[in-house]
Amino acid sequence: MKTRAITGVLTALALAASLSAQAQVKIGVIASSTGPTAFVGIPQKNSVAMLPKKVGNLDIEYIVYDDASDPTQSVQLAKKLLTEHKVDALVGPSGSANAMGVLQVMAEAQAPMLAPVGTSAVVLPMDDKRRWAFKTHPNDDVISGGVVAAMTKRGVKTVGFIGRNDPYGENWYKTFVPMAEKAGIKIVANERYNQNDTSVTGQVLKLIAAKPEVVFIAGVAADAALPHTQLADAGFKGAIYHTHGAASPAYIKIGGKKVEGALIVGPLLVVPDEIPDSFPSKKTTVEFVAAYEKQFGARPPIFAAGTYDAGLMLTHALPEAARKAKPGTPEFRAALRDALEGTRELIVSQGVVTMTPQDHSGFDHRGRVLVTVKDGKFVMVKD
């Protein structure tokens, strides 16, 4: 009996030693560095250079691929990362459609995916497939709540909606409409446009004909400027609201003076110098913005924050997973998924994250602010 007891102790000690010994974690990254989504993928790829290479006793290797903005390539690269590189988790892909395509691949491999995308459809409604996915930007309902609150405060009763003809735009419409209607705001027009359109004249004419007090645009970066500028050209005088997708220098660069006065419920990082002390993530946000600007010569767009925050989430979850299993094993990937889902009150650059089995984004109102465009810059609306 004594010999068995000693053997059991030695076995337990050996297991603990093997788990705590220097181990390598492999993280796959798919970022659209080329193609039409490169304006998203390039800052995401930049952020990878800022992620930690070591956490505790774990060395972290990031294996980065460019899917050229092609959803088919996203799927192929995800399979390559899983089968050839044996990654423990994936950060990416860049686009909403790309992420939706990779969702099934990661679920079948039972490996976590941290998706820095706009659409909430990657994590909602929760099911067996989505339990392996985590979204590293606030869900649409969080931002939509801020939009509706801003409209209500200004007495808005009617709104015209125009969004991208893709999962991002569709999910935004499904999220925004019931929240607006509950607040007594009527949607009087509903239009769509494609990311690469050069004109939305027809949609703009329909919006104006419906006579909304304001228009709400669900677009991303440069393409969000197209309906805004053409509404201005057509003489629309009402306020124009945007999702956080417009919180990008590209939006101002393309829109110019025509987007002055736009109202955007966006992330803290677009106004780092104005963040109130009451926001828990102020220090993290300011430090991220400063470090990114020092390394890349410009302030980070919101897309960069999604990848950076994925790194913070992994940094928090990896040690816990490593206490339960060895990197490179199915058990480790499962433990990492559980650790990510168990994230509580984690401060990241976009706010505070608390995951639950039903909420794999975890952000709340503590990461959103109402901003406008003034003199070619984003500034906080203080009201």
- Widest sheet: strand order? 8-7-9-10-11-14-15
Mean model confidence by pLDDT: 94
Reading off the top of the CATH hierarchy, the class of the largest domain is best stated as Alpha Beta
Q: How many domains, as an integer?
A: 2
Shape: globular
Structural class estimated from helices and strands = alpha/beta
The CATH topology label of the largest domain is: Rossmann fold
Number of helices: 12
Biggest sheet features: 7 strands, mixed
Give the helix level as a range of percent: 40-55%
Detail the poorly predicted runs: 1-20
Instruction: Supply the CATH superfamily name of the largest domain.
Output: Response regulator
The count of strands amounts to 15
Rounded to the nearest angstrom, the distance between the terminal CA atoms is 74 Å
